[in-house]
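User: Teach me something about this protein's shape.
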Amino acid sequence: MDLNEVDVLSRHPVPRHRLTVNDFHRLGDAGILGVDDRVELLEGQLVDMSPIGPRHAFTVDLLTRLLLGAADEKAWVRPQNPMALDRMSECQPDVVVLRPPWSGYQNAHPRPEDVLLLIEVADSSLETDSGAKRALYARAGICEFWIVDLTTNSVIVHRDSSGDRYTTVTRIEGSGALDIRALPGIAIPVALLFA
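Assistant: First, the predicted structure itself:
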């Protein structure tokens, strides 16, 4: 498809066919979408995911190690795995901290009510993570959402969802510490993420 055609469609309202999460899975089962296709389903539309650079990958790995150590048996930490937001959206957040029981996740992807904390690591994906994804996470009722902003070496903590917004938003930098509201007693120094 020519890029000019995409521009025309984005400037003019046209009816669009939206996929459900079941449709999305059927595309994978049929081999139309493969493991190398880095896409998410957001509001029924296939959305390209940004490539994962070395710093992004390292930060996800570091967060996973820190959270696994801190959460111990109180939570389940899942890096870069699917999560069902609703019947029209299935995303792949960088890290999700989930409530037990873990056995339930063998048969279905976690849902918003399972999430204690959702984290996106953002560099080239900052606009999507702080825009569309933040609104979708708030609307789904994700109680706490962090954006680890690699462009400013800070973490933006979102809490208290209301509609498609978070009413409490705090940027934590340098010497600050990150606490998970649903897991009291856990604190992660921000400096560890950007050393």
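Now, about its shape. The mean pLDDT is 88. The helical segments are 3-11, 21-29, 54-71, 126-140, 190-193. If you'd like, I can walk through any region in more detail.
User: That's plenty for now, thanks!
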